Structures are given as structure tokens and as C-alpha cells.
């Protein structure tokens, strides 16, 4: 009866009776050679790592989390990010103490979503030796990047990211999806201008 009133379905594939099925959970598994290095169109000047392609159940779950209020999907993504973060620490790409800085989001989008999912993922994924500092903010009147061409994305984000407060130690930028790399590049630039030591970018997915 409860399922008839409030039907459960997997956030990745829509399977009924579960919020996150085992098949989709396996799709987020971080393998021994992951996260992978990617080369976005706009180089942020630091290594960019991704946990997988923005496709299939990963893409569907990200959209469900960001656009349809599926905050229950923060947990599975945080588990994957924590595994990727541990791998980067083990590889020596980053070193503790490490500051995790979520990529910025528009305030209007955060209000509509009931919070910032990237910050929620970073906070849930933090491992010993790391701390989360939500230091980046998007200036007002920044457009949603969905549907914009690569050039439009670059112009839309240029000069729109600002740092709120000092960020100490080594920094790892956390993002949900890297497409052209415009947000990552601008975020890294403003953090470095503010004196932060940005080691790399880690994203849940890349397009």
C-alpha cells in the first residue's frame, strides 16, 4: 500500500521497489585503475580526474539528485567519491591534510534543490585527514550552463566565481560533472589567485 501512495524507484534505472538497485550500485564501483585522468576542452592547469562517463544510470541519478529532489542519492555518490579520494591519496596525487572545496553552484539552483548536492557529497565523502570548505560562490545573474555551447559556457562563467574566506593547505576541487571544464578552470584560477594550492579536480562524471 505504501508503494502505491509513495512509489519507490531506483534513481539510476527506475526499477521499482528500491531507491538504489544493486545493478546501479555496481555501475558506480570505483575500480583499481580509477579515477581516470581526463582532458577537458578547457584546461584548468591541474590534473582532472573522473569516476566515470556522464551516461546511463550515472547520468540519470545525477539528474534525479539535482533536478528532482532525490537527496537520497547523495549517499551512493559520496561512497564513490570517498573511494576515489582514497585512491588519489594512496597514489600520492594529493596529500593530507587536504581541503575539499566543492565546485560553486548558482544560489537560485541551490534554493530550488533544497541545498547544494555537490557540497553534500563532499561532506559525506570526507575521509580522515580531509576537511570540507565551501569556499566558492557563483555571482548573481550567472546562467544555467545546460544547453550552452562550449564558447558560451566559457563566457558565462568567466569572472563569475568568487572565493569567500581563506582556504588553507592543499586543495582538491570536487565537482559533479565536468563538461567543457569552464567551471573547473575558473574555480582553480580564483582559488590560486587567492593563494590556495590546488592539486587536482575530482568529478563524479565527465561528458
CATH architecture label: 3-Layer(aba) Sandwich
* N to C succession of SSEs: HHEEHHEHHEEHEEHE
The CATH C-level class name: Alpha Beta
The number of helical runs is 8
Which structural class do the helices and strands define?
alpha/beta
How many individual β-strands? Answer: 8
Biggest sheet statistics? 6 strands, mixed
Strand line-up across the major sheet = 1-2-8-7-3-4
Looking at how many chains there are and whether they match, the oligomeric state comes to single chain
Family: Belongs to the ComF/GntX family.
InterPro entries: ComF/GntX_DNA_util-trans (IPR051910), PRTase-like (IPR029057), PRTase_dom (IPR000836)
Protein name: ComF family protein
Organism: Mycolicibacterium hodleri
Would you kindly provide a written description of the structure presented here, covering whatever features stand out?
Belongs to the ComF/GntX family. The protein is 37% helix and 19% strand. With 207 residues, the chain is α/β, with parallel strands linked by helices. The protein has one domain (30-206): Rossmann fold (3-Layer(aba) Sandwich), CATH 3.40.50. A six-stranded mixed sheet has the order 1-2-8-7-3-4, with helices on both faces. The chain has a two-stranded antiparallel sheet with strand order 5-6. The model has no long low-confidence stretch (mean pLDDT 89).
Amino acid at each position: 500500500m505504501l508503494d502505491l501512495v509513495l512509489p519507490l524507484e531506483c534513481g539510476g534505472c527506475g526499477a521499482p521497489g528500491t531507491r538504489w538497485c544493486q545493478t546501479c550500485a555496481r555501475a558506480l564501483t570505483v575500480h583499481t585503475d580509477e579515477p581516470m585522468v581526463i582532458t577537458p576542452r578547457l584546461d584548468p592547469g591541474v590534473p582532472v580526474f573522473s569516476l566515470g562517463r556522464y551516461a546511463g544510470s550515472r547520468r540519470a541519478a545525477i539528474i534525479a539528485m539535482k533536478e528532482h529532489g532525490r537527496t537520497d542519492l547523495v549517499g551512493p555518490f559520496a561512497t564513490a567519491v570517498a573511494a576515489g579520494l582514497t585512491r588519489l591519496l594512496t597514489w600520492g596525487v594529493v596529500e593530507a591534510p587536504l581541503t575539499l572545496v566543492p565546485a560553486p553552484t548558482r544560489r537560485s539552483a541551490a534554493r530550488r534543490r533544497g541545498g547544494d548536492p555537490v557540497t553534500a557529497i563532499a561532506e559525506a565523502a570526507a575521509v580522515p585527514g580531509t576537511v570540507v570548505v565551501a569556499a566558492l560562490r557563483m555571482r548573481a545573474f550567472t546562467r544555467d550552463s545546460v544547453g550552452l555551447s562550449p564558447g558560451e559556457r566559457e563566457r558565462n562563467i568567466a569572472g563569475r566565481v568568487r572565493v569567500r574566506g581563506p582556504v588553507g593547505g592543499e586543495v582538491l576541487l570536487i565537482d559533479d560533472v565536468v563538461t567543457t571544464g569552464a567551471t573547473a578552470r575558473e574555480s582553480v584560477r580564483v582559488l590560486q589567485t587567492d593563494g590556495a594550492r590546488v592539486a587536482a579536480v575530482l568529478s563524479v562524471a565527465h561528458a
